[in-house]
Amino acid sequence: MEPKSGIRSIPGKVKLLIALLVLQLCYAGFHIVSRLALNIGVSKIVYPVYRNIIALLLLGPFAYFLEKKERPPLTFSLLAQFCFLALIGITANQGFYILGLYYASPTFASAMQNSVPAITFIMASSLRLERVHFMRRDGMAKILGTLASVGGATIITLYKGPPLLGGSNSSEEDMVASQENVLDWTWGCVYLFGHCLSWAGWMVLQAPVVKKYPAKLSLTSFTCFFGLIQFLAIAAFTERDPKKWLIHSGEEIYLILYAGIISSGIVISLQTWCIQKGGPVYVATFQPVQTVLVAVMAFVVLGDQLYSGGILGGLLIMVGLYLVLWGKNEEKRIVNQHNTEETTLTKHLLASNKEESSAGADNC
Fold first, then answer.
1. 3-state DSSP helix/strand/coil % of the chain, to nearest 5
2. pTM score, two decimals?
3. Which of 276, 162, 263, 161 is CA-nearest to residue 215?
4. Which residues contact 152 (CB under 8 A, 6 or more apart)?
5. How far, in Å, CA of 173 to CA of 176, rounded?
6. Quick check: helix, strand or coil at residue 126?
7. Cα dihedral sign for 288, 290, 295, 300?
8. For residues 152 and 357, what is the distance between their CA atoms, to the nearest angstrom?
């Protein structure tokens, strides 16, 4: 038989790795898009409403036609869980993020998001969704890898170091100084921390729901639907000016389309698939990669300077990711070895009992 070609021939681990890297690339672009949207005056409520409308229109038809046979019957319990997931993963997550980005800066938002792996790790361990063997090599590798990844992203954010290609920091320092009179860092910190808590909680609580309702596109569509209803309820009290709902330029259209199609439709579906395949902690561990991608995108697209701190942090993140990957593989190897030993022992016991029974029958 000839080997299969195309996507089906790619190993599952490689698919998951590629999906996680694409996921972080989409998130990195969303930082820039959201900041641009706020700069040109898009409402903080209208922006997520349009974003989720586009995502729902994109995902709904695919979910309906592609998952007709896979979709389990809906129950009141499932609908309540979808609504709660939407409250955490859509309304609180997106709402806190856009408020934090408004009062703080994209760099600070990216730095705060690097706490998501640690929060997810603690939540998943507390709920026993993630096993951590502190006295084994795989457990220590996962812990050290998470800390190294978060530490590397923190270095990129907080320590610039000397520029690699010359130049000075004066223009950026002047920009930061001009923004200090507008930005409320205290509220920005509070909102972004709430964003990180809701994001981590969404990834952890989504894992058991996916097991009950494995139709991933339908789950994402229901989550977007309930999130949209919740945002519309908030908008009814906070955004009553009809002019705020009008789109005034083509730039606004492009920014909202990116937020809806890429950051909501594709990203949420992709993240749901990744959580099902790798688990919430494994997905959250790749979060610091976003900081590296933001630095590269800013250098290529915006012409921002590259600093030695970014290279140092990037190397530390790569080491951390390697440790986590090694820890997950080592944990699977130990579990498979243990299961093999138990199976072999069971076969030996059954064979011994059979021989003893045969010997007893012969003696009779």
1. 80, 0, 20
2. 0.70
3. 276
4. 288, 312, 313, 314, 315, 316, 317, 318, 319, 320
5. 5
6. helix
7. positive
8. 63
Per-residue pLDDT 10s for the chain (364 aa) are 444 445 555 677 788 888 888 888 888 888 888 888 888 888 889 999 998 898 889 888 988 888 888 888 889 999 999 999 999 999 999 999 999 888 876 767 776 777 777 777 778 777 777 677 777 887 888 788 878 877 876 776 667 677 776 554 444 444 444 445 345 667 777 888 889 889 889 988 888 898 889 888 899 889 999 999 999 999 998 888 888 888 878 888 888 888 888 877 788 778 878 887 887 767 777 777 777 787 777 677 656 666 677 678 777 877 877 787 777 777 778 877 777 766 776 766 666 666 666 666 556 5
Kind plus residue range of the DSSP H or E element containing 257? helix 250-257
* β partners of residue 220: none
Give yes or no for a contact between 38 and 101, defined as CB atoms under 8 angstroms apart: yes
Decide: 101 and 110 in contact? Cβ < 8 Å. Answer: no
* Radius of gyration, CA atoms only, the chain: 24
Looking at this protein, which amino acid is placed at residue 178?
Answer: S
**Encoding tokens for residue 43?**
């409402």
Q: Length of the chain in residues, anyone?
A: 364
